[in-house]
Amino acid sequence: MGCILVEMKWLLPLLLAGVGAAGEMKVETKTLSNGLGLVAIHNPGSRSESILTFLPMGLTSDGPGQTQWSHLVEHLVVRSTAGGDVEHFNAETVDDHMRLDSYGAAENWQDGLDHHRRWLQGVALTQQNLKAEKPNVIGEADTVARNSFTHKFALAAWAQASRHGRSEVAVKGDVLGARLEAIERYRNEHLIVLDRTVVCMVGGVEPAVALAAATKRLEGIRSQAKSVAPVETHAGSRSRRASPAVHLAHSGCGPAGLCGLDGQRPTAIDAFLRRFPTEERDGIDTRRRRSEDSGGDVLLCIRIPQARSVSG
Predict the structure, then answer these.
(1) Could you give the number of structural domains in the chain?
(2) CB 82 within 8 A of CB 133
(3) Which range marks the domain in which residue 74 is found?
(4) Phi and psi torsions of 110, nearest 5°
(5) 10 falls within a domain
(6) In this structure, is residue 201 part of a structural domain?
(7) How far apart are CA 97 and CA 93, in angstroms?
(8) How many CB atoms lie within 10 A of CB 121?
(9) Domain-embedded: residue 304
(10) How far apart, in whole angstroms, are the C-alpha atoms of residue 18 and residue 260?
(11) Looking at the domain assignment, is residue 152 inside a domain?
(12) For tag attachment on the chain, is the N or C end more exposed, with fewer CB atoms within 10 Å?
């Protein structure tokens, strides 16, 4: 699974920039003195230039009682400089990393690079933006789970149980309860881990030009952020046949459950179970309930017989 994710990271910018045949591409890389990695991919026929910054903060590394805080950080960071401009800026937080995007033309692409510089420097977050983005983060959890990545927020919830031993997980409630000073501190402490951050520029700009411009803007960035430390996973008392049920609740936001899903698509728990070896799945007890308001199955709880990690 990890290898697939790594490959998709680099396939995505190529697709966004409309890269042509492999023989036409030119790729150059550079590591800055502060540890930041740069990648420049040249597509001679392209008139656009996309910039994608990959960071190590993800949904499964969020702290105890901080479900989806990484996702909230993503929204706040982009909004801190780009406002609501979704035509030229986008981002995504998945289980093991975050991606911040800008899309521009060959003649103005450095404007996007300036946004990446400010994101990496750590622009001050505001109460106004926090209030505006909380409902967007919560709404996205419902929309994404129902229509596309059914497992995404199931993994966010499961990490709270597996990594932190929590029996009650508030997928939405933790977002609603996030305070500005706490979320800004969380960003400062864990987002900009320079030697694990890569800025990828892809499109019609020559690699030498792209790398020189990025070096000028980004080499002076400093950060004390550190990756989240590994923890021992939890699954309840090993003296019992099964651990206590993990209830995945939308605290204060509707009925219990994590993902309401169209019955024509795999449910969140089905995608979650596929991360385990086939021979282990029979030992995992799950319960579902039909949800009228979501139009599909809702995951109620999971019982895991013994401790195991789902992130490896």
Answers:
(1) 1
(2) no
(3) 2-147+175-218
(4) -70, -20
(5) yes
(6) yes
(7) 6
(8) 14
(9) no
(10) 34
(11) no
(12) C
Residue 109 maps to which CATH number?
A: 3.30.830.10
- Nearest 5 degrees, angle CA 293-CA 294-CA 298? 115
- Residue 38 is classified by DSSP as E
Which of 56-65, 168-177, 281-290 has the weakest average pLDDT? Answer: 281-290
Question: If you average pLDDT over residues 2-23, what whole number do you get?
Answer: 43
Length of the chain: 312
41 three-class SS: strand
- The total of other beta-carbon atoms located within 10 Å of residue 114's CB is 13
Q: Note the pLDDT tens digit of each residue in 66-110.
A: 999 999 999 999 999 999 888 899 999 999 999 999 999 988 999
Tell me the chain's radius of gyration from C-alpha atoms.
20
Q: What is the pTM (predicted TM-score) of this model? A: 0.73
CB atoms near residue 79 (< 10 Å): 22
Place of tokens 């579902």: 288
DSSP string, the chain: -HHHHHHHHHHHHHHHTT---GGG-EEEEEE-TTS-EEEEEE-TT-SEEEEEEEES--GGGPPTT-TTHHHHHHHHHHHHHHTT-TTTEEEEE-SS-EEEEEEEETTTHHHHHHHHHHHHHTPPP-HHHHHHHHHHHHHHHHHHHHHS-TTHHHHHHHHHHHHH--SEEETTHHHHT--HHHHHHHHHHHT--GGG-EEEEEESS-HHHHHHHHHHHHTT------PPPP-----S-TTSSSPPPEEEE-TTSSSS-S--EETTS--HHHHHHTTS-GGGGGG-EEEEEEETTTTEEEEEEEE-SS---S--
User: Dihedral, CA atoms, 86, 89, 94, 98, nearest 10 degrees?
Assistant: -150
Evaluate whether 88 touches 75 at the Cβ level (below 8 Å): no
Token pair for 144: 């994404």
